[in-house]
Design a protein that fits this description.
The complex is a heterodimer of chains A (about 120) and B (about 110).
Chain A (H helix, E strand, L loop, with lengths): L8 E5 L4 E6 L7 E8 L6 E6 L4 E2 L4 E4 L5 E6 L8 E9 L16 E6 L1
Parallel strand pairs in A: 1-9
Antiparallel strand pairs in A: 2-7, 3-4, 3-8, 5-6, 6-7, 8-9
Chain B lengths: L4 E3 L2 E4 L5 E6 L6 E8 L3 E9 L2 E5 L6 E5 L5 E5 L8 E8 L9 E2 L3 E5 L1
Parallel strand pairs in B: 2-11
Antiparallel strand pairs in B: 1-3, 3-8, 4-5, 4-9, 5-6, 7-8, 9-10, 9-11
Classes of the chains: A mainly beta (about 120), B mainly beta (about 110).
């Protein structure tokens, strides 16, 4: 699986938007971009994923660069509950030769939210 | 639908002992993966089981082993515990073992080795 690069930490104010960047310059055409987050004292949880087009769900939005070498997870209004470590992960979804079932986690970005 | 459950939640053992951790996946999920999380190494993949077969294995010594039962429940075992095995052990389940499936994590078992 291709590698991703994220900032170690970011800070945000409550109720303001947060843009969490991820670089993945070696991404392949069959790699999906997944985001998971881990709240304190909990297991990771799925946030969102996409391939080429921008994606929205109830938790966040995912903006994918046209060349797919970078992406940005957008939390539209950060709350204190969004303080977590956010992981950007690439997953190759080819039925043969693609990613296995496991996730490969990097260090992620630790997001702090100030009241 | 109930989420992934792990038992026990906390465990204290001494060096040289062995430990067995249990994971019950979400109903209908056939793939179970195990991860170890430590402050120094972060989240590292241990192994993955699908339909009672180990499909994939991370880079851990043979002291770490696992199995999956016909009802998809899984156990992992660590023999001859070392201080460095102190960690949060996370279990995740998914519908199958292909790279497209979302993984759902349990709360973890926190193991302390003294």
């Amino acid at each position: 699986d291709a590698k991703t690069t994220q900032p170690n930490s970011m800070e945000s104010n409550e109720e303001e938007p947060v843009h969490l960047p991820c670089n993945h310059s070696t991404i392949s055409g069959t790699d999906y971009i997944h985001w998971y987050r881990q709240l304190p004292s909990q297991g990771p949880e799925y946030v969102i994923h996409g391939l080429t087009s921008n994606v929205n769900n109830r938790m966040a939005s995912l903006a994918i660069a046209e060349d797919r070498k970078s992406s940005t997870l957008i939390l539209h209004r950060a709350t204190l509950r969004d303080a977590a470590v956010y992981y950007c992960i690439l997953r190759d979804v080819r039925p043969y030769g693609g990613s296995q079932g496991n996730l490969i986690f990097g260090k992620g970005t630790k997001l702090s939210v100030k009241p | 639908k109930a989420g992934v459950t792990q038992t026990p939640r906390y465990l204290i053992k001494t060096r040289g002992q062995q430990v067995t951790l249990s994971c019950s996946p979400i109903s209908g999920h056939r793939s179970v993966s195990w991860y170890q999380q430590t402050p120094g190494q972060g989240l590292q993949f241990l192994f993955e089981y699908f339909s009672e077969t180990q499909r994939n294995k991370g880079n851990f010594p043979g002291r770490f082993s696992g199995r999956q039962f016909s009802n998809s429940r899984s156990e992992m075992n660590v023999s001859t515990l070392e201080l460095g095995d102190s960690a949060l052990y996370l279990c995740a389940s998914s519908l199958d073992s292909r790279g497209r499936e979302t993984q759902y994590f349990g709360p973890g078992t926190r193991l302390l080795v003294l």
